[in-house]
Amino acid sequence: MRHIISILLENEAGALSRVSGLFSARGYNIESLTVAPTNDSTLSRMTVVTRGSDKVADQIVKQLNKLIDVVKLADLTEGAHIERELMVIKVAASGTQREEIKRLVDIFRGRILDVTESTYIVELTGTSEKLDALISALELTDIIEVVRSGPTGIARGVSALKA
Amino acid sequence: MQLTGADILIKSLHESGVEVVFGYPGGAALHLYDAMYRQDKVKHYLVRHEQGATHAADGYARSTGKPGVVLVTSGPGVTNAVTGIATAYMDSIPMVVISGQVMLPLIGGDAFQEVDAVGVTRPIVKHNFLIKNVDDVASTMKKAFHIATTGRPGPVVVDVPKDITAQVTEYIWPKDINIRSYPTTPDADVGQVNKAVDALLASRRPVIYSGGGVLLADAEEELIEMVRLLGFPCTNTLMGLGAYPYDDSLFIGMLGMHGTYESNMAMHDADVILSVGARFDDRITGETGTFAPNATIIHIDIDPAQISKSIHAHIPVVGDAKQVLQAMLATLRVAKAKPNEAAIKQWWKIIQGWRAKNSYAYDNSSEEVIKPQFVVQKLHEVTHGNAFITADVGQHQMFAAQFYGFNKTRRWINSGGLGTMGFGLPSAMGVKIAHPDADVACVTGEGSIVMCIQELSTCKQYDLPIKIINLNNRYLGMVRQWQEFFYDRRYSNSYMDSIPDFVKLAEAYGHVGMQITKPSDVEGALKEAFVMKDRLVFMDFITDQKENVYPMIAAGKAHNEMHLRPDFGSDSKSSAKSGTKEK
Predict the structure, then answer these.
(1) Where are the alpha helices (DSSP H) in B172-217?
(2) For this structure, is B478 an active site residue?
C-alpha cells in the first residue's frame, strides 16, 4: 500500500541524510522525496512517498519519530488529504503537432512556459495520476525531458502538522 | 570566563559528572588532550586501540549505569571506534564519543586523517553532532549527555574540528536544554496497565520474560516483586541475566537459542507472556511465525518502535520499565481477582517436567579433558558468584551465561546484540576501573581474546588485576559447532592454527600466565589466581575441542524444536544428533 508521510524536521545539515539513511538501512523503499524550508526557517517540511504493508508503514513512522531531528510527522494516507505534484516537461512541437499539443495542455489545464520553433516547455500541477495521464497522452517520441517534483501533501480540514 | 573550545569541552565532561575517559590521542585531538593535561578532575585512560576505548567505556557504563566516555582523534581514530559504538548501540548503552575532526575550512577536502565521522557513525548512534561554532561546544555536550542517558539509552558522537577547540569564547554551562523533538518518557497509560494486569490475572500458563531494559531502568526489584507476588515463572534474556536471581525456584533460566528447555517450552506453550524491556530479538523468538502461537503478548518497552516490530503485541505498554512495573504492582496489590491458583499449579507441574530434562547437563566424567562448562562452574564457586563477568563472543559466552549463575544486575557484561569478538578484555578494564575492589573476570576463547589482546598493555599501565579465563579449544567453537550441525562437518577456517603461547604472551606484557590442562587442576588454579589480588592473571584452560553448546534452537526454528544434547543426559533416548522435534 502506498503511504505519504509528511515530516517536519530541523532545518539542519545532515537532517535529510538521517531520514534517507534510515530508509536505506532498514530496507524501506522511497518512491519520492521532497523537502524545503517552511515559513518557520528552523523547520523543513519533507514529504516521503513509500510503499509497504501497514506493519511496515507503522515501523517507518515509529523509527522516523525516534530521529532527534524529526520534530513531528504524520501518515497523510490515514485520513483525507490533498496531494499535488509539479511536472515540467519539454516536448518537441513543430508543424501540426504544435496545435495538438497546445490543445492537450489546455485539456489538462497545464501552462506553456517556454516556446521555441521546435519545442514547448509545459508546466502541469496535480495528482501524480494526472501527471502520468498527460505523459501517456503525449506521443512518446515527442517527450524530450521530464522533471517531476514528487508529490507533496497536506491533510484536509483543520488538523495541521505544526511544531 | 573566557576559555578555549577544548577547555570548555573537557570542563563540560566534569560538569556532566564524568570521572573517567578512555581514549587515544592524535593530530586533530591535540588541543583536547592539552586541555585534559591541564586539569585533574577527569582521569584519562590511554588504551592501545580505539576499539578498546569504546569497549572499556561500554563495560564501565554497563557495570555502573553511568555513561561511558571516549575521546579519539579524527579519521582512523574514529573509524577504529566504530565497532565499539555499534556494540553499544545494539545493546542500548549510554556512551558519549568525542572525536577530533580536521579544521572546519579543510572539511570535505580529503584532508589528512579526514573522515566524515557524522556520516560514518550515523546508522549506529542514537544521535551525532558536528560542532561548527565554538559557542555551541557547551550546549552540544549538554545535549549529548542528555540524549545518551535518557529514554532508551545509546551512544552519541560529538565531532569537533580542531580549530573549534582552539578558539576562545565565554564559558557558560547551560542550566537547561531544550530539544523540542526529544520528548521525555511519558508515564504508562493507565488503561493499558489495567489491561495488562487483567490479562496476567486471567492467565493459566503465564511466563514473565525480561531483558536488558530491566537493567537499564534499574527495575529488578519491581520485577522480582511482580514475579513473587504472582508466583509465575520468570525467564531472562542473555542481556537480562541477573535481573532475577538464578537460584530462585521461580526462575526457569535463560531463554532463546541456547536457553533452557523449560524456558523455551514454556514460552511456546504460554497463554500470556509479559515481556519487560526485551525486544523479541531473532535469537529469542526463532521462527517468528511459530513463536508462542497461543499467547497474548503484553509488551512493556520504552521505545515504541520495538512494539510489534517482530512479534505482534496484543497489549503494548510504552514507558520506563520501572515506572510501568510500579504502576502494575500498585494495581495488582488492590486487585480483587487473584491468579488462578489451580491452573498455575498445573502449569508449574508441566514446567517441572521440562526442567527435569536438565537441558544444560554435560558429560564431565573425563579425568583428562577439561570441559568448558566445568571451568565456569568452578569460577562461580571460587568467586562465590559475586564476580563481574565479561565475555567475548562464541561458545564460551554461552557457557558463561548458562553456568555462572547471576543473582545481581550489571554483573554480566557481554555484547548481546552485535556479538562483538574482542569485547571481553577491554570491557573488563572499564568494569575494573569502576569497581576496583571487586573480582572481575573475562571469560573468553583463544579466538576472541586476540582481537583486542593489545589491551593487556593498558592493564599493565594502570594495574588492572583482571582474571582472564581463556577457554582454549583451538577452534572458533561456535563456528565449528554450526559447521558440524549444518555444513556436514566441513570445518572451513574454524580451526585456529599457530595459537600463541598465552603464558609467555601474558608474561611479555608483564602479567602472570598459567596453563591448565587437567580437570583436577581447575579449581586450584582459579583459587591461586584470585588470591593474587594485585596481578592480572591470564589462565589458559586447554578444553575439550569438540564440546558443543546445548540445548540449541537452530536459526529459523520454533521453540519446541530444540536440539538437546544427544550423547548425554536424561533425554538421550529421545534426541538424535540431527536434533529431534520435541512435542
Answers:
(1) 190-202, 212-216
(2) yes
DSSP-H helix ranges across B521-566: 522-531
Tell how far CA B321 is from the center of its chain.
18
State percent of chain B over pLDDT 70.
97
Beta bridge partners of B475: B495
**Residue B578, pLDDT score:** 36
Say which of B182, B304, B308 has its CB closest to residue A68: B182
Contacting residues of A for B308, CB less than 8 Å apart: 55, 58
User: Percent of chain B beyond pLDDT 90?
Assistant: 93
Print burial letters for B327-352: b (CB count within 10 Å at least 16), e (below 16): bbbebbeeeeeebbeeebeebbeebe
Mean pLDDT of B193-204: 98
Interface of B with A in 63-92 (CB under 8 A): none
Catalytic residue among B43, B112, B546, B581: B112
Mean pLDDT of the residues in chain B? 95
Q: Is B113 assigned a catalytic role? A: yes
Cell of B136: 555551541
Instruction: Say yes or no: ipTM exceeds 0.85.
Output: yes
Nearest to B539 by CA among B463, B441, B416: B441
Q: Judge whether B50 counts as a catalytic residue.
A: yes
User: Which class for A102: exposed (0-12), middle (13-18), buried (19 or more C-beta within 10 A)?
Assistant: middle
Phi and psi of A113, rounded to 5°? -95, -25
Label residue B411 left, alpha or beta by phi (over 0 means left) and psi (-120 to 50 means alpha). alpha
State the average pLDDT over residues B423-435.
98
Q: Cα(A57)–Cα(B319) distance, rounded to whole angstroms?
A: 22
Please give the Cα distance from B492 to B495 (Å, whole number). 8
* Cell, residue A133: 495521464
Name, in order, each residue with C-beta under 8 angstroms of B447's C-beta and a sequence gap of 6 or more.
Answer: B392, B394, B421, B475, B476, B477, B496
Select the residue of B118, B119, B181 nearest A71 (Cβ to Cβ): B181
| A60: chain B residues, CB-CB within 8 Å | none
Averaged pLDDT score across all residues of chain A: 95
User: B286 pLDDT exceeds 50?
Assistant: yes
Q: Strands B20-23, B412-413: parallel, antiparallel or unpaired by DSSP?
A: unpaired
Give which of B122, B181, B299, B311 to mutate to test A binding, by max A Cβ within 10 Å. B181
Number of CB atoms found within 10 A of residue A119's CB: 18
Nearest chain B residue to A60 by CA distance is B305
Give tens-digit pLDDT for B88-126.
999 999 999 999 999 999 999 999 999 999 999 999 999
Element (H, E) at A6: strand A2-10
- Establish whether B112 is a catalytic residue: yes
**Statement: the pTM of the whole predicted model exceeds 0.90:** yes
